[in-house]
Fold this protein.
Amino acid sequence: MIKLKKRKILLLPGDGIGPEVIGEVRKIIQWFNVNKSLDFEIDEDLAGGAAYDKHGTPITDEVFYKALESEVVMLGAVGGPKWDNLEFEKKPERALLKLRKELKLFANLRPAICFKQLVNASSLKPEVVSGLDIMIVRELTGGIYFGEPRGIKPIDKGERKGINTHTYTTSEIVRVARVAFDLAKKRANKVTSCEKSNVMEAGQLWKEEVQALHDKEYKEVKLNHMLADNCAMQLLRDPKQFDVIVTDNLFGDMLSDQASMLTGSLGLLPSASLGAKNKNGEMRAMYEPIHGAAPDIAGKDIANPIATILSFAMALKYSLDLDKEAEGLEKAVQGVLDDGLRTKDILTKGMKEVSTTEMGDAIISKLK
Ligand code: NAD
């Protein structure tokens, strides 16, 4: 068993805009080390297409072991058209799936917050989204993306059959529901659990186990159950009714992307993927923006680094127990938005356009 090294941060910039947005986080970590006397140990390596180009694999064993011993893994993004035609096992995205699965990062936290300064960037009416603050907790290592049997096999008369299997066990459901209830207690104290218990047995089990955990340990938290399709609709109709949403891997994938667009830009939203705490209270975790490698804007110094910077703020809060520093970083981001600085993706009339690096520098100057 590889031991986790406290305060070790592994940066995996990845592909496309990944290195640009992680570059801004590297500056912020160094700022904390110098100005707040923190002792973060930074390491950096290849993942995704960049790793494939150099080593013929999206993640080498060496990098994987580095991830295992790091308290925080900060990932940029992986992928791009250059690698689209590789066989499945060699695709850049396999690096991500391997890290999530092998580090046992079963809880994916995706906040969807509508910044007041950007309320007009959403495609929904300002009154629907202003003040929005939802936390989606997606189960990340089970369900249909990992279930067996899976594959494509020939059947009769030249036809083929694609197979994926949706399974959940009690413990897989309970551990992620626990994360949702614990988060709710620090927020508005409300959990909405989503499944399709009307048509899927695994959904029925999900609903029963979440309810049982609630009744046993979290009676003080308000719990309601919602069918996942209804949740998709409610997120557009009245998103502010939600506080914490907990759901499985597949529905979480879709609902969290949908929720992200309530806030206007992919370039703003962070995420955390957390494992279980060991008996010393230590936990493996990976933090990444929810956007991809954005090959269309890579190398132009125009990507929005805020999602990745806020992902680091989540790392400060959830992994490093530095709530005050996390808050300071979030406030610095707000301050820069208040000053009217915008990267191209969130630029509106009257605001000042800045580059990726200028945005990072402006946030650092607010930290000071
Ligand atoms: P994407 O998120 O990369 O880009 C979608 C659109 O949003 C693009 O127009 C892009 O320019 C814009 N965008 C994304 N992030 C931005 C930012 N920080 N600032 C400004 N604009 C931003 O999604 P896609 O185009 O569907 O995927 C591109 C590649 O990324 C694919 O290879 C895909 O597989 C991969 N991908 C990786 C991850 C990941 O690493 N976690 C997630 C999603 C997609």
